[in-house]
Design brief:
By secondary structure, the protein is α+β, with helices and mostly antiparallel strands. The chain contains 3 helices and 3 strands, in the order H-E-H-E-E-H. It has a 3-stranded antiparallel beta sheet. A hairpin with a 3-residue loop joins strand 2 and strand 3.
Amino acid sequence: MGYGKQLYRATETRIRQILVENLVLWVFEKNTRARSFYEAVGYRLESGKQKEMRFAGATTAIEVRYRKLLNGETALAMR
């Protein structure tokens, strides 16, 4: 397991200890490496959840939202 995944797992363990039920993050749509990482550790893309970011020079980028449920009860409640 690489350093990034080890760090992520340690962080998630601490988050679970404070009884957080789910995690949400935003990532640039074209950042396939980050998206692959988050999917590999259990995040799921929330369809229809995206936003457009505007930068100087008329550049735009789309962000998409991912969610990870940390317990089964939350998963059932969110259906």
